[in-house]
Amino acid sequence: MLTESRLPSIMRTALAIRAYAVLEIEEGVNKMRHSRYVGDVVKTTAQTVRKWVKEFCQDGKFLISKRLYEIRQADSFIDPEDIAERCREEIDRRLYRRKKTDPWFRVSDFQRWVNTVLLKEVFSGGGGISRTTAHSWICRLGFRWKKSGKCVYVDGHNRPDVEARPEYVAKMLILRKMMSM
């Protein structure tokens, strides 16, 4: 069924099939390169373009998807500014104002805090956010995770002035003995 909402999708498919056929006729058969080129133009994969062309060549028509794929933007619990600000304050408190006796900040701690304190009313019946969601929220709030490596202390014992020091000390000890005579 041709409706106005499906027209862009149908036109895109028809133009992709036409462009692919023109390339095949003008430049010879090179289906991988041509489907990749057409896919880049119509913003889809090369495999999809080849599938559209195959369907069209077999039946003389192309299938119109019954589903409408609209880009949806899911609403998130963290979208309201007051909730985002409370999350930032909690992370700041746990990271920067923590006492030495407090445990280190972990994603699972943030997840637990969101599920039991921040959104307790929402998740009172069970459920809650996952650890992956908690991690993505922390990243959306502007915090970055970095894997800590082994702490290697570099004291600079290879510096030229440090390597020259033993010779200097030995020379000064000899001079000191001579001066004290």
Q: What's the arrangement of secondary structure elements?
A:
Elements: H1 7-27, H2 31-42, H3 46-59, H4 81-95, H5 107-118, H6 131-140, H7 160-179
Helix pairs in contact: 1-2, 1-3, 2-3, 5-6
List segments where confidence is low: pLDDT < 50 over at least 5 consecutive residues. none
Please tell me what the overall shape is: flat
Give the H and E element order.
HHHHHHH
Q: Count the strands?
A: 0
Cα(first) to Cα(last) distance is: 112 Å
Number of helices: 7
Question: Residue share in helices?
Answer: 55-70%
Average pLDDT, all residues: 84
SS class: mainly alpha
Beta content comes to: under 5%
Based on CA atoms alone, the radius of gyration comes out at: 33 Å
Largest sheet: none
Summarize the structure.
The chain has 181 residues and is mostly helical. It is built from seven helices and no strands.
Question: What do these coordinates show?
Answer:
This protein is mainly alpha-helical and 181 residues long. Helices cover 57% and strands 0% of the residues. The chain has helices spanning 7-27, 31-42, 46-59, 81-95, 107-118, 131-140, 160-179. The longest helix has 21 residues, at 7-27.
How would you describe this structure in keywords?
181 residues; mainly alpha; flat
